[in-house]
Amino acid sequence: MNAETLLNRLKDLKNTFETEEQNLTNLDRAIGDGDHGVNMLRGFKAVDEKASGETISDVLKSTGMTLMSSIGGASGPLYGFSFVKMAGLDHDEITQENLKEYVNTFKDAVATRGKVSGGEKTMYDVLLKATEHLENGHQLTEEDLQQFAEDTKALEATKGRASYFKKDSIGHMDPGAQSMVYVLKVLSEDV
Ligand code: ADP
Ligand code: MG
Ligand code: MG
């Protein structure tokens, strides 16, 4: 995947988040404050309007800076910072071979910024499983990603607003895990 394709796909996430806004809102209403759909749509509307770049790194950096300045809430800095971190990798294209470097960098950035580890019922759980999946030599499909998000249902939240729900968070999917499915799909599909 070259820079132009990446930029187009990231801009097109605006349409995905338009379609999925209500779904994400409902997930965040159950174990949060009900704004994750609005937050993600606001962020990717801004990406559609403002993100630019001629190289993979420039596109990722521009996207990250735009997300940081447009999304309120916990997810804005987490997504924004992670895209800026991925911009630090130096490749002309994203390929099946180097994809694991991007996903691994994304994972480490969320861990650093969110002070989070696996099993805390966040977007991080999807990144962790995606990294393991790629490192085991598998392709990352949308079905795999969706399963990783579904797996957060069984967990008790210990980070973010969902942690206030304690054991009542069990049985609900984490909203950030679901938005991460859409974001990782764009990075990993048909590269
Ligand atoms: P807010 O919780 O501030 O309203 P959002 O609703 O946009 O922000 O995002 C909530 C999502 O952010 C959660 O579903 C979770 O995946 C993620 N999240 C929250 N806190 C953390 C954290 N410390 N580390 C990793 N992810 C987190
Ligand atoms: Mg919220
Ligand atoms: Mg909020």
From TrEMBL:
Write down the chemical reaction(s) this protein catalyses.
Answer: dihydroxyacetone + phosphoenolpyruvate = dihydroxyacetone phosphate + pyruvate
Do the record's keywords include Repressor?
A: no
Q: Which residues form a coiled coil?
A: 3-30
Q: Enumerate the Pfam families for this protein.
A: Dak2
Entry keywords, A to Z: Coiled coil, Glycerol metabolism, Kinase, Transferase
What PROSITE patterns does the database record attribute to this sequence? Answer: DHAL
| Gene Ontology CC annotation, any one | cytosol
Per UniProt, the enzyme's principal EC class comes to: transferase
Swiss-Prot/TrEMBL GO biological process terms: glycerol catabolic process
**Per the record's keyword annotation, is Chaperone included, yes or no?**
no
Q: Which domain of life is it from?
A: Bacteria
GO molecular function list: glycerone kinase activity; phosphoenolpyruvate-glycerone phosphotransferase activity
Q: Which InterPro entries does the record cross-reference, listed alphabetically?
A: DhaK_L_YcgS, DhaL_dom, DhaL_dom_sf, Dihydroxyacetone_Kinase
Which pathway is this protein engaged in?
A: Polyol metabolism; glycerol degradation
Q: Which residues form the DhaL domain?
A: 4-189
Enzyme Commission number(s) from the entry: 2.7.1.121
What is this protein for, i.e. what is its function?
ADP-binding subunit of the dihydroxyacetone kinase, which is responsible for the phosphoenolpyruvate (PEP)-dependent phosphorylation of dihydroxyacetone. DhaL-ADP is converted to DhaL-ATP via a phosphoryl group transfer from DhaM and transmits it to dihydroxyacetone binds to DhaK.
This protein's assembly is summarised as:
Homodimer. The dihydroxyacetone kinase complex is composed of a homodimer of DhaM, a homodimer of DhaK and the subunit DhaL.
Name the record gives this protein: phosphoenolpyruvate--glycerone phosphotransferase
Species source reads Mammaliicoccus vitulinus
